[in-house]
Amino acid sequence: MGILKGLKVFVFYLAVLSVFRMFFIFWMASYMGAGTGSHDVLTAIWRGTRLSMQTAGALTLVSFVPGFLLHYLWPRWERCCVLVLNAILLVPLSILYVASFPFYRQFHANFNQMLFTGANDDLYALLITMVQQYYLPVRLAGALLLAYVLWRILRAFLDNEFFENLFVGMRLPRLVRWLGRLAFLYLTYIVVLLGIFGGSLGWQTSVNWENAGVTKDEFLNEAILDNVQACYRAYSLNERMLACNGLDFTTDDIRTLAAKLANKPADTDDLDVYLTREAQGAQIEKPKQVVVIVSESFANWPLLDKYKDIPISQGMRSLIAEDDTDYCPTFLPNGASTVSAVTGVVTGFADANLYLTTMPESFAAPYPTASAPQMQKLGYDTNFWYAGPSTWERIGAFTQAQGFAHFYSRGDFGDVPGSVWGCEDEVLYEKVLAGLDADTPSFNVVLNASNHSPYDLDLDAKGFDREAVREALPEDHQQDEELLKELGHYWYADRELAKFVKEIKEKCPDSLIVIVGDHADRYNIDKTPTTYERYGIPFIITGRGIHKGTLLPDSAGSQIDIMPTIYELIAPQGFSYMSVGSSLTRTNRQGVNYGFFITRHAIGKADTVPLVPESVDGGEAPGLDQQAMEDYINAVRSISWWRPKYGPMLDESKLQDR
Prior knowledge:
four-stranded antiparallel beta sheet; alpha/beta
């Protein structure tokens, strides 16, 4: 009877996870891509059900093992133990399910590594965001109510003894009874196998989180994972990141790739030789102020022609039209979160499964590719300005360890308006502007925060014309107040950014200003955006000496290419610097980050074999030099992995304990 109760618990959890999945697909159906049909939905449901057999089996074991033991040791405690343990399980299961809806809307994914990024984030700010934007108390109450209802259903299911009494009173031959017991045990064995192998009877055909996504639709592939499996995926990937197991290069691989990237012979094990560059000569008069603005969630899609009638990007559109400004529309962030942008600009390394702001090596000394020490060599004082608290991601300690002479954060600005993530952009820019001395050369990295959930700016007080934006939206989006609020924050970030650039030029006319987003992929008008619209960020460069054509006409890049672009613009001929990336004014026509590559005409996932390019402009898929792009991707990743973790020398013995 104990085994039968265990089977009933298994069936219950499998049914719950399957219903959860089906309702999730139904409720979030607008995120399915065009051309997704009923066959894809059914495939996702079936594949997910198989995967959830593994989850249901794991959840069942938690109560089955203690209950089975108590059944023979202290029978009167068995039922109580099973009910209590399952009550404990249903609470987090329900909370995860309720949380999965806003999580998907925010990140276009089921639970992923952002869970662990959040754990390193400002927990107080996260809590306030969840309360203000995601109505945490209401959702939590709903999740607890859901858990209680499910527990009552499970209790009734276990108390119903229809199956237990099915053959009671029937006089069956002993042989039949024994055959029935054998059949029951065989059925139990089959269920155990299905639970172990994810809906299969062996590992050869098992379903797991890595091979579950078999549909052509990204939303459905995410929906296949139940919330427990998604959390397990996040844990597995985070463990790989911490152990650096996500990359698998030998020292011979890295030497060969680094030599190709540097266009040098592969004749040394010193990586720094391959990273060393010489500037070809200044392209503009050396500016007094160099300002790199990394703008929160500042995506490129609002700057595209197809969205020009939506009045949220007039500031940057006007700036891009100026004679002293150039713009690259094919640019990638370093990673999916702000901290990756910070590490890319500060260290010059690509995102390579290392959490640089937590690694002891990052605090021992600046990396040779770090931006601040190299700008100091060019005669600049170095400042990092952040709208939020210095404790976020250890950003204060990290940037100073990487060579910034001065770090300023919200704690330095006094009692100023803003959200839990940081002061308002206009306040930050006011502080930066006050800190600029027209006669003192300085290099400034500015990281703002206003365009961030919980999107709590008083937009009406700021002058946002909500109705004008509403009228410009597609009809089926015009009543989406949350989208309007998000677009209003983009409008505010754009307006304040344009004002800030103008004020810098007025106070310090000989300035060089670079503008990029920290990442995109937070909100789009299209719920199934193209890869380019979803992930692309702008690269805008402006100031004295800049003109249309300063950047290569087919330039493309990522955040590791920002600093070499600056060096090649302002450094004298022969100036020695170290970089993984390269200049968009000289040579760079491709970019790569944690998951994607980009050129002027193509974008695609960086981890497929072969690479599958998608058109940037929506036309036919462009051609691509597969080998050259693969070598570039692998070179950037392998160097950005080895150099910060193991140092300059390529020594295979350092990998023995990996």
